[in-house]
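TA notes, week 10

Several of you asked for a full example with nothing omitted. So below is the full record: structure tokens for the whole chain, then the designed sequence directly under it. When grading your own attempts, check the secondary structure regions first.
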């Protein structure tokens, strides 16, 4: 649970069922991005008519499609925008994680500072705002890969090149269907590059097509048509094909399966029929420790 004592608000937590929840004196709930492990309790939050969710336009597209959150229940914030509340200011920074992900910096009237990173990958949008983030009194830090130096990742661009090379090599595409794993939002850079390289739209489950349609513009490259032979689904879907029936249009038994995940680094027995790549929207071990050094926060909670 992340509770900001400056904003007297919750971040990525909608604790309406928790007995021990502190009474927020504000009705604002800050949502860093649209991954389900950051949205628990969001539906219940809507039962309180005064609650407002603060998030980016892209994250709103996720909660609109998945949880039918009405637009008037949200306050949309852009990267590099600051919101002035009565006794504190919130700055939103592009977290360089999935599309629409934000990091929040909270500053009190008295000059106290709290930073909530949400999930993030260190990169220029964050480095450009270091002066704003530095010297926090408290830092809540995404520490997903921070506990083991084994987690060193190549750049996302390097892995994308490797994946495109694999797809285009030998008798892979278009002879074989291509399946790539991703959550409801995220890994966009990879999927967009694949779509552009093959000049096709990518099949996705209906909710995902609707999320990216809602976001629109350059990100609307998903379709419900299977004709391109390129598919995106959850890791479970891609790695096990559970719940997918083979038919004439889907060449499942012969498909090329690609699972981009930071955890690929430590998988000892990789499945031979799934290609794992250490592509991550989180910091590597070195990046997260570099960030810690750069921020030099007084106190830190690793999440
Ligand atoms: Zn995430």
């Amino acid at each position: 649970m992340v509770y900001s004592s400056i904003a007297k608000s919750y971040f990525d937590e909608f604790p309406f069922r928790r007995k021990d929840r502190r009474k927020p004196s504000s009705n604002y709930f800050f949502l860093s991005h649209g991954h389900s492990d950051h949205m628990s309790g969001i539906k219940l939050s809507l039962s309180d008519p005064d609650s407002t969710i603060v998030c980016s336009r892209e994250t709103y597209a996720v909660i609109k499609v998945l949880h039918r959150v009405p637009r008037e229940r949200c306050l949309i914030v852009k990267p590099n925008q600051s919101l002035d509340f009565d006794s504190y200011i919130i700055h939103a920074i592009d977290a360089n994680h999935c599309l629409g992900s934000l990091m929040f910096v909270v500053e009190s009237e008295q000059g106290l500072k709290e930073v909530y990173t949400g999930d993030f990958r260190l990169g220029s949008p964050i480095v450009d705002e270091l002066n704003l983030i530095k010297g926090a009194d408290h830092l809540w830090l995404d520490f997903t890969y921070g506990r083991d130096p084994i987690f060193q990742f190549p750049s996302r661009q390097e892995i994308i090149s490797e994946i495109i090379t694999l797809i285009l090599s030998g008798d892979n595409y278009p002879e074989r269907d291509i399946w790539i794993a991703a959550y409801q939002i995220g890994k966009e850079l990879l999927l967009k590059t694949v779509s552009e390289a093959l000049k096709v739209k990518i099949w996705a489950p209906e909710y995902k097509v609707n999320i990216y349609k809602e976001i629109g513009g350059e990100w609307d490259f998903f379709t419900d048509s299977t004709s391109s032979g390129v598919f995106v689904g959850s890791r479970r879907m891609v790695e096990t094909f559970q719940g997918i029936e083979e038919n004439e249009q889907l060449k499942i038994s012969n498909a090329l399966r690609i699972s981009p995940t930071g955890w690929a680094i430590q998988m000892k027995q990789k499945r031979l029929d799934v290609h794992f790549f250490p592509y991550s929207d989180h910091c590597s071990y070195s990046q997260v420790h570099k960030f810690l050094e750069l921020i030099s926060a007084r106190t830190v909670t690793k999440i």
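The longest helix spans residues 156-168. Use that as a sanity check on your answer.
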